[in-house]
């Protein structure tokens, strides 16, 4: 029983990270209908920035978020303006191909800069604390808390701020948003900036628990897709539920099925995706059903 | 220009182009005996180069069947290459007795099983993912690819895990003497390429192929006309996978060693996509042309810059979509008719989807925030 509870906690902690990891992907998809296949690569870039900052200035990865988020916001903003906005209204196929190519290019630029060797970040506060007989790994718990804060901040931003309302308007009905004077290209660029900054922040946090290497991205892209299919497009509660489902499934599989390494998580998320597509193609929370909009 | 396009299009789908292709294949069969290259080692080297090129052409042509003709981009097509390779490897070696009930099969007997296994796997993947419109298939294939590599790595008793499988060293095919050892693989690859491209030509002309193009241009419209789009998508996916499985099996046999990393090799998928895009998605002769151009570019220009190879591929994929979205041949062929319609046409998605589509499951991907 204890073992199950302990595994469950690990799954929940992982799920919280997945939830914040998936937000960028899910909001970009929800708002502009672009499947960002370079998602994992943005995450990888964030992880590398955290590693580089910690290496050069001894900056703690959680502190380095202050640098990473603004920088990656600008990167995302510019990429959206010069590249993705050109194809955002064309068939899906084009966006898929462009972001796929972009992902390959980013991963290989990073590989040229830092070689393919995995990098590790050393921190002083590893280990675990014990609460009520259950062990909580410190780093993962911190990531979980930070994820919850980021998620609430994003939810508040989308719900309350003027800009957030414009983003929601653009997602619900692009043409009507244009008519009431929302600059769609700008809104898209800002959305992409926010999403990519969030993704990079998630990458910076995960760099504390996994080795950082240039080709770590694609599994995260796939997991992001699975979670989005589970939880719905651009829905923050959906992202949390989807993330928890995937996180718990993965950890349980690795713990209780013998002969399966942790790498099999990627296979687990794929099987989960196929099951969802068979059973409920509209997503668990019906999030994948098109909104009542004519676009 | 429009006239030229129409002519190119008509020519490419005509019997004359097919006859030229058959002649070309015959010429390739005669080539080693022609005395054009008399020095043995040089001849063997040329045959090896050509075989590699033909592998690429066959793969590009197969990818184009699903990715180009139906517009369902397959980001993990190399998985069928890997499945073909492993099925052949396991059947030929019986995994050192792990497959105790089966005798070790000779190459020719195992080959069809490799293709069939790939096609069956395509059916398994296609059933859930190709039912849906939109990007689900593309992402699922990305996942299948990564997942399969992990499964092969974990399933040690059968596949040898990360250590791989070593196939028994092969005698030259068709009993060629030792100094002609490249001949056998060359002949097989010429045959496979001839079949793959010929099949692509035939499909493009047939009603089946026109249906696929209709699905690409306007899937809802095709459904309205009573076309069972799911059936067509899965069927062509299986055909493409069968051929890719055969190529993979043959590659494994010729390489005599397979492990998860060489067989499930990301670059192979990326190259398939690139070659088809470069030549022209959905055209018959585009992928072979794209494969040839890419092969020689790689050989001539960046053969010695291994590190930037993928960077160049990724960047050129972006540039191709932005500036030459229809590829070399596609930009020459007629776009006015149904044959090469609005896949990349400048009309915006909003206009093309202006008609309300209520029943569509996941066509429209914009949801709410």
Describe the structure.
- The complex is a heterodimer of chains A (295) and B (369).
- By secondary structure, chain A is mainly α.
- Chain A has helices at residues 2-32, 39-57, 61-87, 92-114, 138-160, 162-172, 174-179, 184-206, 217-231, 236-256, 265-279; strands at residues 128-131, 134-137.
- The N and C termini of chain A lie far apart (51 Å).
- Chain B is mainly alpha-helical and 369 residues long.
- Chain B has a two-stranded antiparallel sheet.
- In chain B, helix 8 (182-205) packs across helix 9 and helix 13 (266-279) runs parallel beside helix 15.
- Chains A and B meet through helix 1, helix 3, helix 4, helix 6 and helix 9 of A and helix 5, helix 6, helix 13, helix 15 and helix 17 of B.
Summarize the entry for a quick read.
The complex is a heterodimer of chains A (295) and B (369). Chain A is mainly alpha-helical and 295 residues long.
Topology:
The complex is a heterodimer of chains A (295) and B (369).
Chain A: H1 2-32, H2 39-57, H3 61-87, H4 92-114, E1 128-131, E2 134-137, H5 138-160, H6 162-172, H7 174-179, H8 184-206, H9 217-231, H10 236-256, H11 265-279
Antiparallel strand pairs in A: 1-2
Helix pairs in contact in A: 1-5, 1-8, 1-9, 1-10, 2-3, 2-4, 2-8, 2-9, 3-8, 5-6, 6-8, 9-10, 9-11, 10-11
Chain B: H1 2-13, H2 15-30, H3 40-68, H4 78-93, H5 107-129, H6 136-154, H7 156-159, E1 165-166, H8 182-205, H9 207-217, H10 219-224, H11 229-255, E2 257-258, H12 260-263, H13 266-279, H14 286-300, H15 309-323, H16 327-330, H17 349-352
Antiparallel strand pairs in B: 1-2
Helix pairs in contact in B: 2-8, 3-8, 3-11, 3-13, 3-14, 4-5, 4-11, 5-11, 8-9, 8-11, 9-11, 13-14, 13-15
């Amino acid at each position: 029983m204890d073992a199950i509870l302990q595994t469950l906690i690990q799954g929940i902690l992982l799920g919280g990270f997945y939830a914040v990891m998936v937000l960028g992907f899910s909001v970009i998809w929800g708002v502009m209908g672009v499947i960002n296949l370079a998602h994992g690569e943005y995450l990888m870039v964030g992880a590398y920035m955290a590693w580089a900052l910690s290496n050069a200035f001894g900056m703690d990865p959680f502190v380095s978020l202050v640098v990473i988020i603004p920088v990656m916001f600008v990167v995302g903003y510019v990429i959206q303006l010069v590249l993705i906005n050109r194809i955002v209204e064309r068939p899906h196929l084009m966006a898929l191909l462009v972001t796929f190519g972009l992902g390959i290019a980013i991963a290989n630029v990073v590989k040229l800069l830092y070689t393919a060797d995995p990098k590790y970040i050393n921190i002083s506060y590893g280990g675990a604390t014990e609460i009520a007989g259950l062990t909580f790994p410190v780093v993962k718990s911190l990531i979980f808390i930070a994820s919850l804060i980021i998620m609430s901040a994003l939810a508040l931003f989308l719900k309350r701020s003027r800009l957030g309302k414009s983003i929601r308007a653009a997602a619900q009905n692009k043409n009507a948003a244009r008519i009431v004077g929302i600059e769609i290209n700008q809104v898209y660029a800002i959305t992409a900036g926010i999403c990519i900054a969030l993704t990079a922040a998630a990458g910076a946090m995960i760099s504390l628990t996994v080795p950082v290497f240039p080709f770590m991205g694609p599994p995260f892209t796939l997991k992001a897709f699975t979670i989005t299919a589970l939880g719905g497009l651009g829905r923050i509660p959906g992202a949390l539920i989807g993330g928890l489902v995937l996180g718990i499934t993965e950890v349980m599989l690795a713990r209780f099925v013998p002969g399966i390494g942790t790498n099999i998580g990627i296979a687990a998320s794929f099987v989960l995706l196929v099951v969802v597509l068979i059973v409920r193609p509209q997503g668990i929370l019906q999030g994948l059903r098109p909104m009542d909009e004519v676009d | 220009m429009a006239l030229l396009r129409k002519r190119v299009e008509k020519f490419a789908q005509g019997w004359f182009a097919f006859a030229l292709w058959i002649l070309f294949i015959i010429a390739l069969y005669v080539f080693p005996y022609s005395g054009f290259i008399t020095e043995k080692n040089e001849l063997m080297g040329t045959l090896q180069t050509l075989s590699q090129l033909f592998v690429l052409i066959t793969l590009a042509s197969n990818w184009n069947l699903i990715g180009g003709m139906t517009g369902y981009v397959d980001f993990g097509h190399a998985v069928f290459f890997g499945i073909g390779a492993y099925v052949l490897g396991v059947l030929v070696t019986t995994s050192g007795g792990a497959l105790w009930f089966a005798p070790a099969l000779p190459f020719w007997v195992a080959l069809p099983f490799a293709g069939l296994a790939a096609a069956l796997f395509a059916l398994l993947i296609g059933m859930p993912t190709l039912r849906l419109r939109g990007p689900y298939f593309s992402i699922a294939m990305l996942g299948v690819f990564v997942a399969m590599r992990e499964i092969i790595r974990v399933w040690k008793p059968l596949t040898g895990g990360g250590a791989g499988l070593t196939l028994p060293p092969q005698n030259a095919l068709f009993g060629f003497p030792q100094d002609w050892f490249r001949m056998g693989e060359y002949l097989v690859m010429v045959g496979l390429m001839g079949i793959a491209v010929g099949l692509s030509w035939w499909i493009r002309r047939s009603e089946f192929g026109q249906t696929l193009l209709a699905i690409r241009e306007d899937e809802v419209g095709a459904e309205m006309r009573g076309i069972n789009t799911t059936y067509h998508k899965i069927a062509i996916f299986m055909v493409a996978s069968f051929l890719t499985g055969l190529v993979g099996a043959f590659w494994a046999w010729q390489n005599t060693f397979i492990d998860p990393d060489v067989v499930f090799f990301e670059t192979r998928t990326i190259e398939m996509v690139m070659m088809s895009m470069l030549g022209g998605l959905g055209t018959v002769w585009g992928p072979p042309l794209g494969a040839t151009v890419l092969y020689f570019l790689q050989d001539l220009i960046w053969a010695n810059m291994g590190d930037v190879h993928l960077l160049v591929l990724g960047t050129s994929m972006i540039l191709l979509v932005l500036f030459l979205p229809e590829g070399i041949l596609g930009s020459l062929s007629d776009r006015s008719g149904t044959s090469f319609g609005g896949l990349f046409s400048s009309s915006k998605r909003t206009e093309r989807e202006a008609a309300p589509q209520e029943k569509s499951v996941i066509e429209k991907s914009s949801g709410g925030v």
